């Protein structure tokens, strides 16, 4: 599974961006050139990183602006630590004018004065280029503190050879279908495990709960329910979600070991041929390039995450990824805003899609080029939902979620008890 859209199509996309960038033929005098500092981690883990390609094209289109790129680590906690000192200028060297941050950071960084509100600095029409859920994930106390750049979303991988053999292709539409197909395949000893996912006591479990709860909330409602539906842990939708997650373990659709699985363990179970279904992230497809030489060659399918029976719309997919934040201390705000507008424009986001990185620009996500790439198309067929990260104390809130949900998954307490306990913790956090 390549990190690029192959052949002439990729070249055509690059040419379209560079042609647009080349429209400005004039060169600004050196004394008029403004340099902005962009702190960002790499966008890919294999192949060519698109950051410099995008910078070069932007500078051609904007000859009076230069972009100085500072690469940050890929670990989220390490990036946060660097930015905490770099934004206020407490380190040697340049401070960022603009930086990439995690999609769950807006509330935390806004509350700490590390990010500038942007809703009144970018025209209202600008925000229309994104799915509304991406914008909602960027808010804190009604203001927008981040601009979506690229995303990572939950997807489903499955053994299409096994589903075809047992005529189970129809199981992919619903969670109940996935559970039933898993039990069938395990019962016939065609596979060791059915459905594997991230059930350990950590942030990945919060993401899984977010998806199941959003699906449960949408049952019987119109195809386009309210954007974010996971505002309470002790809701009826959350109870249905956690009860179903527990039933996967009790009923044999998922192995008990799932309660210790993070992304690497779940991926290993699937890649080694032990599991029939895997809930994972779109970025996982990069690390699965080795499948080309494995016994699973040609046997793996990619599908949208399903939903529960009774929901006519799309399944929910948790939002991960990275957004643009602006340093409140920048002295080059007009140039930074021009950079952000350009990097989230249709041509630039076309280039992002070329590298099989999921763009946030909605017209690009609907474009035929994306729809022709099965690894990107699958994301556009799901309903993005964001985690309840609209509080600076989200790390504590998430811990309350995954801590109590994990207790319910293990059978240590009943789901109802776990959710009530977790909600009490959340209420204390939000006071």
UniProtKB/TrEMBL annotation:
<dbReference type="InterPro" id="IPR050490">
    <property type="entry name" value="Bact_solute-bd_prot1"/>
</dbReference>
<feature type="signal peptide">
    <location>
        <begin position="1"/>
        <end position="21"/>
    </location>
</feature>
<dbReference type="Pfam" id="PF01547">
    <property type="entry name" value="SBP_bac_1"/>
</dbReference>
<keyword id="KW-0732">Signal</keyword>
<protein>
    <submittedName>
        <fullName>Extracellular solute-binding protein</fullName>
    </submittedName>
</protein>
<dbReference type="InterPro" id="IPR006059">
    <property type="entry name" value="SBP"/>
</dbReference>
């Amino acid at each position: 599974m390549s990190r690029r859209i192959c052949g002439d199509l990729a070249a055509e996309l690059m040419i379209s961006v560079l042609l647009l960038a080349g429209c400005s033929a004039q060169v600004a005098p050196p004394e008029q050139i403004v340099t902005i500092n962009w702190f960002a981690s790499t966008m890919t883990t294999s192949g060519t990183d698109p950051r410099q390609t995008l910078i070069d094209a932007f500078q051609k289109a904007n000859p009076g602006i230069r972009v100085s790129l500072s690469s940050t680590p890929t670990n989220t906690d390490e990036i946060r630590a660097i930015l905490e000192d770099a934004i206020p200028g407490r380190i040697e060297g340049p401070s960022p004018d603009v930086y990439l941050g995690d999609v769950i950071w807006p509330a935390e960084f806004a509350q700490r004065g590390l990010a500038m509100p942007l809703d009144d600095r970018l025209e209202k029409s600008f925000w229309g280029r994104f799915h509304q859920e991406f914008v909602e994930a960027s808010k804190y106390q009604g203001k927008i503190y981040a601009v979506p750049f690229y995303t990572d979303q939950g997807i489903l991988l499955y053994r299409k050879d096994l589903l075809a053999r047992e005529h189970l292709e129809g199981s992919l539409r619903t969670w109940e279908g996935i559970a039933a197909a898993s039990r069938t395949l395990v019962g016939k000893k065609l596979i060791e495990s059915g459905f594997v996912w991230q059930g350990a006591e950590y942030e990945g479990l919060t993401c899984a709960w977010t998806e199941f709860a959003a699906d449960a909330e949408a049952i019987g409602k119109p195809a386009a329910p309210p954007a974010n539906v996971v505002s309470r842990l002790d809701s009826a939708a959350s109870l249905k979600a956690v009860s179903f997650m527990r039933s996967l373990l009790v009923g044999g659709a998922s192995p008990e070991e799932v309660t210790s699985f993070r992304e690497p363990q779940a991926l290993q179970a699937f890649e080694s041929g032990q599991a029939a279904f895997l809930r994972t992230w779109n970025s996982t497809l990069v690390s699965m390039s080795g499948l080309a030489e494995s016994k699973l060659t040609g046997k793996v399918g990619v599908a949208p995450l399903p939903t529960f029976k009774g929901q006519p719309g799309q399944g929910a997919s948790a939002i991960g990824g990275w957004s643009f934040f602006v340093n409140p201390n920048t002295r080059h705000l007009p140039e930074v805003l021009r950079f952000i507008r350009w990097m989230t424009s249709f041509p630039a986001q076309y280039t992002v899609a070329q590298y099989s990185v999921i763009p946030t620009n909605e017209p690009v996500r609907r474009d035929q080029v994306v729809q022709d790439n099965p690894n990107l198309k699958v994301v556009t067929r799901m309903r993005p939902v964001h985690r309840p990260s609209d509080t600076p104390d989200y790390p504590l809130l998430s811990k309350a979620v995954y801590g109590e949900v994990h207790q319910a998954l293990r059978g240590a307490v009943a789901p109802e008890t776990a959710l009530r306990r977790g909600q009490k913790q959340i209420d204390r956090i939000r006071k």
